[in-house]
Amino acid sequence: MKTIIFTGLLSLVLFSSCHKTLDINPTDRYPDPLVWQDENLLKMFVNQQYNGINTIDNFYEIMYFSDDNFCKYNRGGVNIVRDNILTPDNVSSLTSALNVWDISYSTIHNINLYFQNISASTVDESVKEDLTAEMKFVRAYVYAKLIWSYGSVPIIEDAYEINSDWSQVKRNSWDECVAYIVKDLDEVIASLPSRPAIRNRAGGDAARALKSRVLLYDASLLNNPDNDSDKWQKASDAAEDLFDKGYTLAPDYQKMFIDVNCSEFIFSKEFSETYPSYLTFYLGTAGDGGRAWVTPSVNIVDAYETTDGEIPVTNSELGTVNPASIYNPNDPYANRDPRFYASIYYNGSTFVNRQIETFVGGYDATNQDATITGYYIRKFIEEAQGIVGTKNYTAPFPLFRLSEMYLNYAEAQYHLGNEDKAREYVNKIRSRAGVNMPPITEGGTELLDRIYHERQIELAFEGHRYFDVRRWKIADEIETTHIMGHEITKNPNGTFTYNRIKLTQDSRKNDWTDAFYRLPIPFSEIQKSNNSLVQNAGY
Amino acid sequence: MSVTVKGTQAGTTTNADGQFQISVPSTSNVELVFSFVGYEPKTIKAAGQTKFEVVLEPSVTGLEDIVVVGYGTQKKEVVTGAITTIKAKDIGLSPSGNMAAGLAGRLSGVIINTRSGEPGSENTTIRVRGQSSFVGPNDPLIVIDGIPRDEDGGILTRLDPQDIESMTVLKDASAAIYGARAANGVILVTTKRGIAGKKPTIGLSYNHAFSQPTRLERMADSYSYARAQNLANEIRGLTAPWTDEELQKFKDGSDPVHYPNTSWFKAVQKTWTQQDKANVQLSGGSDKIAYLVSGGLLKQGTPYNNGAMKNDMYNIRSNIDAKINDYIKVTFDLFGKKTNRISSPLSSLGVFSWVGLSAPTVHAVWPGTDYPTNRGWGNLSVLASVTGEAGAVTTTAWSQNGQSTVDIKIPWVEGLSVKGSFAYDYFGQLTKNFQDVYYVYDYDEPNNTYKKIKGHVGAPQLYTEEKRTEFITGNARLNYLRTFREVHTVDAFVGFEQNQTNGTFMTGFRSNFPTGALQELNAGDANTQTNTGGSVKTARQNYFGRALYSYANKYMLQFQFRYDGSQNFPKGNRFGFFPGISGGWTLSQENFMSSVHWLNNFKLRGSWGKMGNDAVAAFQYLTMYGLTSGAVFNGTQYQGIAQSTVPNPNITWETAETADIGIDAAFLNNRLTLEFDWFKTNRSGILARRQASIPSFTGLTLPSENIGKTVNKGVELMLGFRDKPSKNFSYNVSGNATFVRNKIVYMDETPMAEAYQKQEGKPIGAALRYEAIGIYSEADIADTKVAKRPGTIAGDIKILDANGDGVINSLDRVRQRLTNIPEITYGLNIYLSWKQFDVMLGCQGQGRVVFYLRDDWVNPATSNGGGNILQWWTDDTYSTDNPNGTKPRLGTSNGIGGTTFTQVNAAFFKLKNAEIGYNLSDRAVRKVGLERARIYLSGTNLFSFDKTRVFGIDPEVANGGWDLNPLRLINIGANVSF
């Protein structure tokens, strides 16, 4: 009997809180209304959206997609673009650094949630105002990346739920997209200080710089076939707007890229010990344990001028030497633009305290990661830290810097007919401290080539080239030229022989179509939209 | 043992010494019946005797068997559900360190595959009658001693087989008693207990096994690899990396120092490894207390050369039964397990990736030294990563299961009892991943010196993770079991159960340790420290019951239900009702069958039931924001939050409606037995994400929705024949075969897809692939009428233009018919016993099953790049010299992974287990004071007939063959009891 009573009592004790048992709140997430009422949570929500611009994993991947390097491991699906075999199917296998569709619209959904909930939020108005401006900056940046990749895209402002109706979503026009981005940026410029209190959050200057690039791309031939000079004027004004904001060209073209406080950086992706960049490891020399995922092509090596201001090699496939230049094919690295030495490790150059050996059998040419171009990238490398896979590198990645604004301005001024201004701003860059290349003097289309060339050199590996050759509509030439490498042989007498090798397959040469000026919208999206989205021409 | 007087109700049981007292009628022909569960009763003339030597033979029919079913036991003869059971004797037969792996082929209707050979992480998959759900786990529910248990420490696979009395698999509606967690079937495990009145017995068993991977991957040799590289470049118009002289040197091995032929798998994998298993058990009981105390250990060695890896497990179990008085019985069970595992900082998968990617043209170590070469990849050395030089992951896990049961007979109502159980399980795990600085070497040949280079670890660092989870389960049941007028039996109960789990975890990290000598967090550099932590809670509540009525063991009718509540769903959708009904008719008990002497048993049974599956991420009905890594501003990381999933306010169970019709039969004096089942499961409301139809531009992170429907149909056949033709010889042959096929009835489909791409009508998980139909020739390339993808050149895989539109695009991908879950599985088990010898053979087979070779095996142009490929592919590769080659050229930009070229038939027939044993004669054993002694030689994964030998890949292995092949074991062992 006692036992029965005991059992009964025990059951009562153990099961006393029955009816509440299933009412569990998640212990790893915040509930909906709280996020919009709590200032700290609201700020955290905004912080996360910066990943819509780029992420810790993809911020550098855009550099694969151009002729100034060769990525031997098909990272980010680069072969598809490099070999000119892009289709609406295989576009989905490209890195989100270029095929930005999914990541962008996911961010846009979150931003739409923000705008849906912010007006009812009880958080202090001044806080809300700043956060709203930041959201507009991110939104503008995300849309900008979308239109640069695909051309016009749908503008979506509804925060959809699972049973919403999106069957009527269509692509907006190019001009609507640009106007939408510029409107956001103008509002950001009006409400945020030029330089934010917290470095590299959105600020007025970051918005100005983005606006400059958006308007420059908008004015370019690909998007402005009628050459509407009004567009060039707007692009010019937007770039000029940053000239008096206190940015100056940095004095050391090599060290500036590892200095988060660099005087010409307008907006950068930052890293910390807890949220590190692995770029030095990913790009680093194989002899030191780097992965060498991207290595400079002979094409870009050929493009660095000799100190007399001449381009040394005019055809990289054939190795045609420019007779006007002081270039010596048997001593190819002598007397080059100082930016060459700052951006590229070549056979015989110095890494910390040793010589780089990219000749066959050399220290940096033997293991499986070794470069097959003969070169390694030096830009962005944190030499003082050494190259280690487990190291947490913290150097920033520049997204906008003053010299780009000068180049944007020069290009716009050229198209507005002001060749003097154009030359002046190109020469400002050429004469920057430590570079001191002779000024350019050309006019007409030769000047335009010089502007293009300066942009290729100055902004090498920073993710501009893929878009530049397309908006200029010169990709049909650039992207059908083989990417070349140097097979360097050490001769018994200690000299070297440089043998050009072709690194890309023949489809690069033969299969280009003008459809490739834009990425296709992933075919699965066309299917899911039931043809409401219209594919880009040519795919 | 119970003793009854034949023809009367009078009976008693023997005590620990075998003594008993019984009153018998004073007639001369009185007979006593001695019986014991699982044995044939024996009838002996009692007249005048006081001493009996009784040897019981194991029961042949098994009909007297008591079978464990959900929340109780039933006599086998009244069971109406589709149930497979396996007894202690058969469970312990495999020397495998993974208990579940050893059962493959033995359980009819249960598909067991071992996907990896890494000790302690064999990745065993168990499927009861195939699978029915798209995304959710298809794993069965594991119930140990009446308590559902799902800790992540290998609750089933890591059980000590010596501790298990029996296992029951509930395959049909009989699982409905477990309601919302039963849809994938239920495995009930019952551990051994002491027997009241039995004298103390000590049992010892020891096994020592030698293990090795069943196969070594057949990677290309250096000549084939170098030649393949040249061909790949040649066909693309690029410079060949190797000259003809170099190729020749690889081929003839004339300069092994400069042109080696390295087998990285041989360099990394050990030929033989050791495994030890031991168990000691003490069991017995007085008339009040019964006890079983068992301790076991398992030690598994490293599969790698010079490896520091190991997997050690220690377990202890104490099952105590106490009879307080005639009405009250109490049990108290404790189980503890500790696992010490040291593994490579690269998982077996990681080791594989690096080994597979290593070129055979490069030395693993410099000739004549043990210096690892520097092959690149951030100076990562796969050798140092398996020897412990580069550090190791030490995982220590503790499990404790504590459980108490009170069983009270209510004195006032005959047959009524109350039973309550309470279980508290605890699982804790500490993981320490210490990475240490090590060195690789470059060789400076002219000076004959080696240059030491730091490996991929820059500074010693430690990452620790501590996890604790408690599982609390309580249940109470009211039982009623009574037989009226000797023929009407009612066996019924109602119950309540509640489960809660509370888990927490915490991680810490520090770098820049001064040395590897002290591997604790506080020895690291405080400036580098980071940490994180979190917790999780779950709860379930259920009401359930069952009523079985049987008439003279001839007609059976059973009803059961569960009313089940889970916190995974919103309030209104939280509870579900899951009923099950079944019936049986034992024809052989009918009078009209009594003349059919060759038929000993014939039972028809049928069942129908509804079950649920709630195994999805919790809280998907809420709008929630999860923590994210945020972004860095001003040199500091700012944490973020983001919407987890868009809410689905209507989320609820998946439901499975299962029907089963079966026959149990025994013929020829019970020597031939047969079981046959036909079954069908309609699964509906399957939780899946509408990824195929919701565009990405909506930006939605999709929640699971109850949208899918599948049907899973099949048949099972089990045939057994046993006989004892002579006193010294007996044998038992049994075979089982299952055919099961699932079909998607409805699923979210891509709009505008071609009919042959639909998932509807195809099995779950069927891949969408381009059909490879050969190799494009030069003529095909020139012919614009031959459809091809952009960039295609001669030597690429030729693809079927499925819709005939003249272009190859994703609309030409075809939904395949087979998956990696076999449609046909079968097993064959043979036991022979001759005098003191016995032999066991256990075979497992599967058919109508495929897997796809992982891309990395066949396409070295992967993102990590430049690795080796299978030798198979380098044989008969297309080239300009071999335009009829059957393998595509290497280095294709289009990739071959998305085609059926890599589809491999994974059918096999394996000699899974074999054992030959010798039982020492009773006389010999008793002379040295023992009760029983047995020695045996056994093995597992001994032989396999299959189609994957050419790759050097075991057909069961996971990830398209990209993992350690399962292990073959050769084992010697001994059992002794006294």
Task: Summarize the model shown.
The complex is a heterodimer of chains A (539) and B (978). By secondary structure, chain A is mainly alpha-helical. Chain A contains 19 helices and 13 strands.
Structure description:
The complex is a heterodimer of chains A (539) and B (978). By secondary structure, chain A is mainly α. Chain A has two domains: 229 residues, Alpha Horseshoe (Serine Threonine Protein Phosphatase 5, Tetratricopeptide repeat); 174 residues, no CATH class. Helices cover 38% and strands 8% of the residues of chain A. Chain A contains 19 helices and 13 strands. In chain A, strands 2-4 form a two-stranded antiparallel ribbon. The longest helix of chain A has 26 residues. Chain A starts with a helix and ends in an 11-residue tail after the last helix. The model of chain A has no long low-confidence stretch (mean pLDDT 94). By secondary structure, chain B is mostly beta strands. Chain B folds into three domains: 59 residues, no CATH class; 612 residues, TonB-dependent receptor, beta-barrel domain (Maltoporin, Chain A), CATH 2.40.170; 44 residues, no CATH class. Helices cover 7% and strands 47% of the residues of chain B. Chain B is built from ten helices and 45 strands. In chain B, the strands form ten sheets. Chain B has a 22-stranded antiparallel barrel. In chain B, strands 7-12-13-10-11 form a five-stranded mixed sheet. In chain B, strands 2-1-3-4 form a four-stranded antiparallel sheet, with no helix packed on it. In chain B, strand 15 and strand 16 form a beta hairpin. In chain B, helix 2 packs antiparallel against helix 3. The two termini of chain B are 20 Å apart. Strand 1 of chain A pairs antiparallel with strand 29 of chain B, so a sheet runs across the interface.
